[in-house]
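ok here's the first one, seq then struct tokens
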Amino acid sequence: MVIFLNFTYKEAVDYIEEIPKFTSKNKLEHTRECLRRLGDPQKNFRVIHVAGTNGKGSVCAFLTSVLREAGYSCGLFTSPHLVTINERFQINEEVIGNQAFVSAFQKVKQLSDELVEEGSYHPTYFEFLFLMGMVIFAEAGVEFVTLETGLGGRLDATNIITPCASVITGIGHDHMQLLGDTLEEIAWEKGGIIKAGVPLITAENKPSCLQVFDTICAQQGSPLYRARPSHVRRDEAGHICFDLDELSGLCLSSPASYQAENAALAVKTVRLLFPGIETAHIRSALFSAGWAGRFQLLHKDPDVIVDGAHNREGVEALCETLRGMPVDTVIFSVLKDKECGRMIETIRQVCRHLILCSFEQGRLADLQSLAHQHGLPLAHDLRTVLKARMACDSRIVISGSLYFVSEAVRLFQDGEI
């Protein structure tokens, strides 16, 4: 494809951000045709496809870390980003530079212009970025790509890929207006990534959801493997450790107990693909891996931690960790399509002070009503309330919507706190 466009990085980002984010998906045939016209870049590497309700980004990070430790070159595609849109694309655990971003953007932008001229559909926001990712990874010459679904699985733009392994984290209550009212319906949508003959590895433990996966795997002739950590504990330094199958004493640098399940899922997957992988590589990779926005320490003395727990199961997993450590304040904000009241009541059991905080987001819940209903204070500026609570010199957790968490990350990165 001959490129005649000449965009700056800012112009490229501005163009993408103007594409509507929350809109109907194009058909998968559209995405498949787009890739064909880009030269089928996805055929240049092997893919591990990851879906699920919570933990997808963490699983992708653990997978990539273990593969890198074993000597493979890897791409990583995730969403959403916290601060810069480049974060969605990593090569060998490094966020791509602006030049690589613009180069891929121009290829997809030219294709988009051609499609519009032909009377076809413009790629959606997520589809545009997914197409860019496939171009970026093909041009980088990576051997593997860890690919996170955007939303759901069956109808997600990423589902045109035939992976070497399908991975599904636990199933929970999120995006129910799009994926279904029951966990079984949500599991069926997530299970749409299972491909014929391709193994499924899952951390799911609920019998009803496992039955859905069993049914799909039987139809597809795909083997199903379960990954469940055992003997999860915290060592003297506060690190989470666990056992998996015959491997014992696998440790993470994170104190978040929920990461044991995500790490176990990644290890099980890599060991199925590469049975001879060295245990030393697994141990080193797990301890060095981390994921921004998931129990991430932004500041010490006092500790300020961010965690993007934005649905029922995410909040319950966060609170399980917080019960093992003293927390003075949780600052929380949530979007209106979540189980707001239930999440608030769960959080207030593990901290001395729970503060709701508004921020600029069109889909924000009615925090004024929630604050009144639950007898909680409501702040209107994260920077102000955070500085006030930090002056008390006690541990603070900022949680809820990933858009809210990103605001906290920006404050520290920009030196405003």
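and now the second one, same deal
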Amino acid sequence: MTPAEARVDLSAIAHNVRLLREHADGAEFMAVVKADGYGHGMVQSARACLEAGATRLGTALVSEAVALREAGFTVPVLAWIITPDEPLDAAAEHGVELSAGSTLILDRIAAAARRSGRTVRVHLKVDTGTSRGGATLRDWPDLLDRAAALRAEGAIEVVGLWSHFACADIPGHPSIAAQLDAFDEAVTQADKKGIGADAIRHFANSAAVLTIPRARYDMVRPGIAIYGLSPIPELGDFGLRPAMTLVARVALVKRVPPGSGVSYAHLYVTDRETTLGLVPLGYADGVMRALSNRGEVFAAGRRRRIAGRVCMDQFVIDVGDDPLAAGDEVILFGPGDHGEPTAQEWADSLGTITHEIVTRIGSRVPRVYRYDGVR
């Protein structure tokens, strides 16, 4: 028995993929499994996504994509952040598709292709207004020209043209239409240079898959929605099913008198004789310190506010006179089926997004998987 675990419902992931595919209007489906599957486990999540109809996988880092290949995945895998020390030779040898948003990156990819003796499949990225990765519209023609030359050499094959939204999760934001217009212009330029004809056009993240039909193009790339967390919480859950439930077992129970200061700095002081429970998870495990005296968990039949400071490895709850014993289960967050808080509620409490909640769950917390076969 472990003191804590993150239970991942793979059938929920499969459900979410099928739901998102319905919104994709027949576009190809790339499941984004970066950051260890948003904290849910990259390999297990990828397998569930493919079984539910995804046809491609996406990662941020090349090392993540290579790890998928080494785990036995043979479907197309795209990695889009190319740093100076990324294993491009390994990527070329494993048939990983790579993103290029500058001529410098293209040249590095081509060098790896020459060393490996393999043609690397490349997605050219245009920066349409997010000002992160990708070539600006001013630099886009140079990137296309360099890609054409390297394609003629046989070093690369251009298989994708893509971009990324800045504000797809803000319905009606004026940048959405502006970015789509810029992308269409970039694709037109690629077509004129004989590069875009067979390339997959892709732009839509989770929010765009669900709310921006124009953005779906040839392929969609949902991420957070795959794991059942809404990309636009103010519009509801879209029928998504949260896949992760974070639980811990109470390590110690004690009765304390009124006036007892609890945890560091005594931010919480008991106002009566009461029962305290020690929960063996802390900020080293992803229970953020900012949840001190404010975050809620589910224990002894109802919600409890964290009592005092969240520490590195533990926090305390006050259950009053309700029965609690060492070994009893505490649900930190989950789908909400039993009255427990959700990851969205934690995010709202902290002024952040659910992406941060689930990806922060640390390596000390084992992931335990279930799949009930529900289709």
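notes on #2: The first helix runs from residue 10 to 23. The radius of gyration is 24 Å.
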